[in-house]
Write a structure and sequence with these properties.
Layout: E1 5-11, H1 13-25, E2 30-33, E3 46-51, H2 55-63, H3 65-68, E4 81-85, H4 90-106, E5 109-116, H5 119-126, H6 137-166, E6 175-181, H7 184-195, E7 199-204, H8 207-211, H9 218-225, E8 230-234, E9 246-252, H10 257-268, E10 274-280, H11 290-304, E11 309-313, H12 320-331, E12 335-340, H13 345-350, H14 354-361, E13 366-370
Parallel strand pairs: 4-5, 4-7, 5-6, 7-8, 9-10, 9-12, 10-11, 12-13
Antiparallel strand pairs: 1-3, 2-3, 8-13
Helix pairs in contact: 2-10, 7-9
Length: about 375
């Protein structure tokens, strides 16, 4: 990569100094320009410049200041871990196997999380203020029975994975198990906020079954609300292997977050080389210079990620499902990558993102990266 200096931000002197301290604390060398040497505090626009090779890291730090600032826990205080929500199904087991291989590569711990809903509590939530529910033996017995059953199934899953590791079918990694009562997507999101796993791996059913479960899908809700990278594994696919071919469709947002998402993809997925097809995210508001922007992104990627291969394709908003089917077949796609921006509840309800749509209409593994 080039070591030429590029401007990553222009700030007042005080803000530039604060950004310099933040970046250099994380190992990014900074040079400040346009500083009034006699009276630095009145400098009109201080340029914060870094090496071009440090750009992906610098953008990651700038876009996530709340993680890297000293007010938050230091990044190295949290263990590297992958989270796998499980429901003890076959597709859930496949997610565990995939996560174990990724955990081995990243030298990370694995956390298996199962969440169950107590039907007695669910019934109480539906009652009005007038019709109250009398807590008592029924609720206690229900909770105890559900907890015992969940613990038993988790122990069986743990033994199955340990045996596979002993037999050499799976690499040996450290993992722990958690069982919690609550709404699954809420429990997963709360765990992600507190522990910030580097990746959440979730198994999904085959496309036929998923279409019948479009309302109330835990995976879809987590995709829409969680701010950690999520890797979905359909139960019908084979494992992605580091030594195998990987054809990736990457949906572009036309902004600097694309670089963050690509950098995260290459960091999280131990597969090289990848054949990456850059595709403009479907939108009714297509910029007039969108083709130039896409080519600029391709040139940047070719220069900074020479170990991977990049090409361009387009998709029409008029028939996204059919167009994606064409791209998938033409390029033999076996991984989807979608940069995901945070949406409010109304936007998620009335205008679901492409990751949400493809979850129900595709049997291809998908990496969703919050930006």
């Amino acid at each position: 990569m080039s070591d030429r200096l590029i401007t990553v931000a222009i700030h007042t002197y005080d803000h530039a100094i604060a950004l310099e301290a933040l970046l250099e604390q994380q190992g990014v060398k900074v040079t400040l320009q346009n500083v009034n040497l006699s009276e630095p505090t009145i400098s009109p626009g201080v340029r914060v410049r870094i090496k071009e090779s440090d750009l992906p890291l610098a953008l990651r730090i700038i876009e996530n200041k709340e993680i890297f600032t000293s007010d938050a826990p230091a990044n190295n205080e949290l263990p590297r871990e992958l989270l796998v929500p499980v429901d003890f199904s076959d597709y859930s087991l496949k997610a565990c196997e995939t996560a174990i291989r990724l955990a081995q590569f990243h030298k990370a711990n694995l956390v298996l999380l199962h969440t169950y809903i107590n039907p007695v509590n669910a019934l109480r939530a539906q009652l009005t203020d007038v019709l109250t529910f009398d807590e008592g033996v029924e609720e206690t017995n229900s909770r105890i029975a559900l907890q015992k059953e969940a613990d038993k199934l988790m122990e069986q899953l743990s033994e199955r994975l340990l045996n596979a590791m002993k037999e050499g079918a799976l690499p040996v990694v450290k993992f722990s198990c958690m069982v919690s009562e609550g709404v699954p997507e809420e429990v997963i999101n709360q765990y992600a906020k507190e522990h910030r796993p580097m990746l959440i791996v979730m198994g999904t059913r085959g496309i036929g079954t998923k279409e019948r479960e479009m309302v109330g899908s835990v995976t879809a809700e987590v995709l829409d609300t969680c701010r950690q990278p999520i890797f979905t594994i359909p139960g019908t696919v084979t494992q992605l292997r580091p030594d195998g071919e990987c054809n990736v469709v990457f949906f572009s947002n036309f902004d600097q977050e694309d670089i963050l998402a690509l950098d995260a993809l290459f960091h999280l997925m131990p597969i090289s080389p990848m054949n990456v097809i850059l595709v403009r995210l479907p939108s009714k508001k297509v910029p007039s210079d969108s083709d130039r922007a896409l080519n600029t992104l391709k040139e940047y990627c070719t220069t900074h990620y020479p170990q991977h291969h990049f090409s361009i394709d387009t998709i029409s908003i008029t028939n996204i499902d059919e167009e994606f089917g064409r791209i998938s077949e033409t390029h033999n796609i076996n991984l989807i990558t979608v940069p995901s921006k945070k949406k409010n509840v109304f936007a998620r309800l009335f205008n679901p993102g492409i990751a949400h749509r493809l979850l129900f209409h595709s049997d291809i593994p998908m990496m969703v990266i919050p930006v």
